[in-house]
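Q: Structure for this?
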Amino acid sequence: MALPPTSTAVRIHPGKLADIRVEQLQTPTIVHPDDAIVKVLKAGLCGSDLHAYRGLEPFDAPYICGHELVGEVVALGASFGAASAEGRPALYSKLKVGDKVVSPFTCSCEECHFCRIGFPSRCVHSLLFGSPNLAGAQAQYARIPYAGGTLFLLPPELPKDLPEESFMLCGDILPTGYFAAIQALGHPNVAPIVKGESYPGVIGSIVPKVRGLQAEGARVLKEDRKLSVAIVGLGPVGICALVSLLDILTQNAVPEYTVYAVDPVPARRAKAAAILNKMTPAEAGHVKVLDIDAAKAAVKAETEKGVDAVLEIVGNDSAILLAYDLMRPFGVISSVGVHTSPQFPINGDALYTKNVAASFGRCPVRAMFPLAVDLLVRRRDVLGGVGGEEALVERVIPLSDAVNGYDKFNSMTWGKVVFDPWA
Amino acid sequence: MALPPTSTAVRIHPGKLADIRVEQLQTPTIVHPDDAIVKVLKAGLCGSDLHAYRGLEPFDAPYICGHELVGEVVALGASFGAASAEGRPALYSKLKVGDKVVSPFTCSCEECHFCRIGFPSRCVHSLLFGSPNLAGAQAQYARIPYAGGTLFLLPPELPKDLPEESFMLCGDILPTGYFAAIQALGHPNVAPIVKGESYPGVIGSIVPKVRGLQAEGARVLKEDRKLSVAIVGLGPVGICALVSLLDILTQNAVPEYTVYAVDPVPARRAKAAAILNKMTPAEAGHVKVLDIDAAKAAVKAETEKGVDAVLEIVGNDSAILLAYDLMRPFGVISSVGVHTSPQFPINGDALYTKNVAASFGRCPVRAMFPLAVDLLVRRRDVLGGVGGEEALVERVIPLSDAVNGYDKFNSMTWGKVVFDPWA
């Protein structure tokens, strides 16, 4: 299929703040045998697109924005279907023009050490879509490097009542929310509550078995197994973290838990409440949606000690300080926010005194895809709606409305915005 | 048995630096039914005793120093052997005058939530021995609060070739070293290397099983399973961490690993080398004892990406910065050093960019006792020696020599020092 020589894309320009332009640009082409060209069916506008928009990330030349897409393969490099594809990631053999795919927000080769051990967001070839280093997804067409490793092929048997917009959530925010949740719940310091066995034995196989002496250890009681988790930040990623967390707790049949869902912005709390309304009381009944002061008061009154884990989704000083304030000693902070403050606001003495365990950084999206897609399909009643105050994807707009979309999303007037490049 | 009304103790006095005095003080007595009085057989001098000595921790009144002891029970409060002991920690029923015990460096009740889930160093009743809040162990007698929870009863069948001094190591440094190692090796971010399964599936049971889709995930290859760990700081705790780490790796039959044991002080590196000389080449051959520059160069040359985990035993800015520098993306920092710097030297952007997972704080010693005692017994050829350059416990001195002992230990002229209060 011959692609049009030019097509529409949204670029940000340097020199002044918030300079978003909708432009006709040369359609991307295959430049490396591992490349694919994808026709973008839907592209997301994400909170981290706003870093450059707000002047927090300097750049020198215009680039195409966006790092979330669901698309259809329209061209493949020579590596695909070649004899050399054997032994390489499966998509080099399998992927065909016409396939529907999702891309993570970074490319990743699936052939380096980091990809193989499950941390593709630190792939040695990793580049961020929608950055000065790699053209983004808010366009009619996008070039995907290392496409056999980067892309995720959507299974053909997916339910028909899930719109394309929903799959676009898998590019970043749903896996990131899921990762925030699993990084906290999977931590050995939370395990005594979830599994009912005391530390360090609960760590499992790596801990040598000690004959006889282990019987001296403390016993976890039923009353100790009241899990408490706070989510700091209820933007779109925070909502995804909330739904993921509830789903994981349900699947693991954790009997007693409370989730403190915290955001200072009323509209965001309202969105969280609307999403929770779509869940059963058996799940939603465990969640308290609160502003910052109310959350501090509730955690103090209800847990005394603090919560077992905090999912920190925001990435600024007040968010990480709130996380520290809310957590119990030996608690866990799972931080997926992008921090730009010049100094980390918690000092070593404070980290020591509360035995903080914290994990920072970018979600390994590609490795989370199976879990995220599975969650999306099973929870499509909650995550799958499009349009309106009660849906995670609040509105779908054409690329031509990008200037307005950025403005409204930046001011938090609009929640999650998705572009339809063909509208 | 009537105790003498006065006995000998080592106190630090406020007002000037390093004011250590050996004094005759009133012998401690039972002040609460849960107390025990222990005749101190051996007491340790630990690096963190030096914080007050060097003026880093202000205090207003003299107190008895020390937080490591092995002792013999000489008096028990009314809770012991009482009808009320039923349902309480076993030692309230079991402990008898004459029993040999070890104490952790903090008291802990074993009856609160934190004790039960395995984090007794954050027991709600926790107090640090040898601090302004609780008289310490560098004395002929010591009072142990919450003794049925705090003390660890040494099994009578222990090998006879292990001197008392060695068991004193269990009060702090051996469990702390063990904890540093297990906190790193038990972290989900290290698990892909140790277990050969990719993230996030390697987290285990908490991760829902996804039918079909999981097959898309990356595969860990044999070449990915070369574990690399750095230990920053080869003081007595660092040595304990090194031996613990090697033992855990051996017990788990981890086939390929390299340990970078790092310290800028030649005498400490020499001590580490001497300890390694007592181990088999099958273990010691995996260890490189290096200064800081050599460690940076070796890690860069041999791993490219950085090490999977760093045990940070020191607790200052250069140590934590070195840990950051040495670790791979998605690596783990297990920090047991006491940090006193007013600002944490790594900012949020750096933590994000390298996907740092870090755990800080005080070892839950009481919970580590079974593992530490078991290690000490099995590895007594390495850990058990007393006296001389090649032993972990370098010298045993009387309390009367405390002023000199503090001075020599502070200047790193002497390694690990133990007091014999009856010499």
